[in-house]
Amino acid sequence: MEKSAHNLQMVDLKGQYEKIQEEIDSAVLEVIRSTAFINGPKVRQFQANLEAYLGARHVIPCANGTDALQIALMAIGLQPGDEVIVPAFTYVATAEVIALLQLKPLMVDVDPDTFNVTAEIIEQAITPKTKAIVPVNLFGQSCDMEPIMEVARRHKLWVVEDNAQAIGADYTFQGGQRQKTGTIGHIGCTSFYPSKNLGAYGDGGAIYTNDDELGPRLRTIANHGQVKRYYHDLIGVNSRLDSIQAAILDIKLRYLDEYAEARRTAADYYDKALAGLDQLQVPVRHPRSTHVFHQYTLIVKDGRRDALQAYLQDHGIPTMIYYPVPLYEQVAYKKAMANHFDMLPVTDYLCRSVLSLPIHTEMEEGALKYITDTLIAFFKA
Predict the structure, then answer these.
(1) Which DSSP string do the residues of 222-246 spell out, in sequence order?
(2) Cα separation of 381 and 376, whole Å?
(3) What mean pLDDT comes out for the span 364-375?
(4) Strand partners of residue 320
(5) Greater confidence, 1 or 178?
(6) Residues 126-159, buried b or exposed e (16+ Cβ, 10 A)?
């Protein structure tokens, strides 16, 4: 079978690095020469620049996105057995930290178009034991956060935004105010895993909030629960972003909006090229959120997802399935859940139907044409 002449990858980190190599190498070497490897000036510099970019009063860098979620839930004072609403169509880390803290994941379905949880779905699931909501800004766009925050206010619930896939996206409120995703809930969490839109060259994460009481509390928990060295006021963890990763991220933060625009350009090409295929649903963009396309995820109709994936693989085109198994079907979470059911219909359908195409900052039109031409050929055969 014909193979692509393009070196197709889901994410081209090498190509991205080569464009900013001089800046990255210089920043890393500066840290090495300084020997300030932990909590050095580069961490504080990145923190300040990320606060300015997000419009957040407090950014707490940490070791990874999972730690960010755990520290956030630790900071709001939940008790074992409390329920936390979480979408079933997401990565395991979102539910993992809930169960780890002896809380109960209360899993809910998602909107079939945006793949995000909605205020209506959340409100139907609330019980007297529900204490918090973790909306996930999936694949690069915001949940509809204004009505979610209204539900949270009415029911006195905490909101912890999982923003690992949507950093840089903007949400517009009904009054026209724009706000960065992750800064709308009481706490926002992100991951700097290398393949993320703002990715380190190793692990990393951050927590952010505009609450002046939560900010210092989050920072204390992330640092062994200590405000002053050797004096521990809270039960904490050891979760740090090292200085080399902070230096790399500080460089890449300057390019984050440019990276998002490159991803949107690739997504626009896909949208236009695939618009005529009734067998597919291209990503639906919510009118109140920009989309930074961490993933470009199709719905493949009529049970043909796996056949399409195999066909594309045979033609040198990588794809990924995010996510093949609902969280409630994972063995580890069947006993941990607050609810017990056979399935959530939208989540079940998505797990059987979604397919993500390559999308990254270095995509060229020739590669996009080859991918879409090959995909169209599958359905025309």
Answers:
(1) HBTTEEETTEE-S---B---BHHHH
(2) 9
(3) 98
(4) 356
(5) 178
(6) beeebbbbbbbbbbbbbbbbbebbebbeeeebbb
Q: Is 263 domain-assigned? A: yes
Final residue of a structural domain among 233, 253, 273: 253
pTM: 0.96
Q: How many domains is the chain partitioned into structurally?
A: 2
- Residue 223 belongs to some domain of the structure: yes
How many CA atoms lie within 13 Å of 11's alpha carbon, on the beta-carbon side? Answer: 14
Looking at every residue in the chain, the average pLDDT score rounds to 96
| Residue in the structure block whose two tokens are 């006993």 | 335
**pLDDT band (50, 70, 90) for residue 236:** very high
Across the range 275-280, mean pLDDT stands at 95
Phi, psi angles (nearest 5°) of residue 170: -115, 140
Q: Are residues 237 and 305 in the same domain?
A: no
Q: Which amino acid belongs to residue 321?
A: I
Tokens 């994410």 belong to which residue? Answer: 11
